[in-house]
Specification:
By secondary structure, the protein is an alpha/beta fold. It is 44% helix and 18% strand. The strands form two sheets. The protein has a five-stranded mixed beta sheet with strand order 3-2-1-4-5, with helices on both faces. The chain has a five-stranded mixed beta sheet with strand order 8-7-6-9-10, sandwiched between helices. β6 and β7 (137-143) form a beta hairpin. The two termini are 25 Å apart. The structure holds 5'-O-[(R)-(carboxyoxy)(hydroxy)phosphoryl]adenosine and zinc ion.
Length: 326
């Protein structure tokens, strides 16, 4: 059983042998946070406590198993919104205690990195993983045995976060990723030349807040059609993400790139990355959308691998808002 309550989704899933998803139940809180234009941590915690028991029960029922069939319970305990994480951790601890099952605390980012491996079982190692979500932008070299080398991350906003902010400036509601993606398809990506911060720096770091600010000023002064702004904004973000990911592939000689996190749904990012990777003979892999966005299956999946490696946590397991995967 894998449980994730790190942000605004209450998620539980049952996975067999690290790959076979028997159930994957997610309760989205998007309607709760919509009116605030972003996730309100306090409300997220309260929604999790309402939903958690039901979501866990449903994940078992849909998988056709009972607690007796489980081998272990895994829960995201870092990084994330602390109040939200605590709900999942407290639930997992109670269940582990009551049913006398081993407990594993899992890093949410490792879950995202593992998601593409659940569906592509012959993924080469090392490979480069680009994790892009509402909370994270991370370029990681993934080695055999689930060892990671973090190459770079965002210095300010996450990629999904700027999509959400730009959607707000354009009056498109929350969350903004999908709306902007759709609108951008009809717009001209060269209409506005937005900056590409840190594109040419000699590293794997990202910076997106400068793009966000440029879009904001542009929207305020020029009433240019939203679709052209959306397309030009998306072109800037995707350009930097693709350029740096390819740079990492070339430098490391990795044979594949995986794409994961909510922004992995982006049509322009998928297409551009595929095209650029094909030019250097690298493969691009991404999981289906229900494994890209926050879910419990990726947590159960990586937990299975860690369980094989001997990881066990005691009932004193705690949650922490930050958590590196070094
Ligand atoms: O992984 P996720 O569900 O939650 C976090 O861990 O943050 O990612 C949600 C993020 C939101 O910022 C949303 O706007 C973005 O993913 N997103 C997209 C698209 N679909 C969702 N961003 C760009 N293009 C999309 N098609
Ligand atoms: Zn996530």
């Amino acid at each position: 059983l894998g449980i994730d309550t790190s942000c605004d989704e209450t998620a539980a899933a049952v996975v067999a042998d690290g790959r076979e998803v028997l159930s994957n139940i997610v309760a989205s809180q998007v309607e709760t946070h919509q009116e605030y234009g972003g996730v309100v941590p306090e409300l997220a915690s309260r929604k999790h406590i309402e939903a958690i028991n039901y979501i866990v029960s449903r994940s078992l029922a849909e998988a056709g198993v009972t607690f007796k069939d489980l081998e272990a319970i895994a829960v995201t305990n870092r990084p994330g919104l602390i109040g939200a994480l605590l709900v999942g951790v407290a639930a997992a601890k109670s269940l582990a205690y009551c049913h006398n099952l081993p407990l594993l605390g899992i890093n949410h980012i490792e879950g995202h990195i593992y998601a593409p491996c659940m569906v592509h079982d012959a993924l080469p190692f090392p490979h480069i993983c680009l994790t892009v979500s509402g909370g994270h932008t991370l370029l990681v070299e993934v080695h055999e045995g689930w060892q990671y080398k973090v190459l770079g991350s965002t210095q300010d906003d996450a990629a999904g976060e700027v999509y959400d902010k730009v959607a707000k400036y354009l009056g498109l509601g929350f969350p903004g990723g999908k709306v902007i993606d759709d609108l951008a398809q009809k717009g001209n990506p060269s209409a506005v030349k937005f900056p590409r911060p840190m594109r040419n720096t000699d590293d794997y770091q990202f910076s997106f807040s400068g793009i966000k600010t440029s879009v904001r000023y542009f929207v305020e002064k020029a009433r240019r059609a939203g679709l052209h702004i959306a397309a030009s904004f998306q072109a800037a973000v995707v350009d930097v993400l693709v350029y740096k990911s390819l740079r990492a592939v070339k430098a490391t000689g990795a044979a594949a790139i995986t794409l994961t996190g909510g922004v992995a749904a982006n049509s322009h990012l998928r297409a551009s990355l595929k095209l650029a990777a094909a030019e250097i003979g690298a493969e691009v892999y991404y999981p289906p959308m229900n494994l890209c966005t926050d879910n419990g299956a990726m947590i159960a999946g990586i937990a299975y691998q860690k369980y094989q490696q001997g990881l066990r946590d005691g009932l004193s397991l705690n949650a922490t808002p930050k958590g590196s995967i070094f």
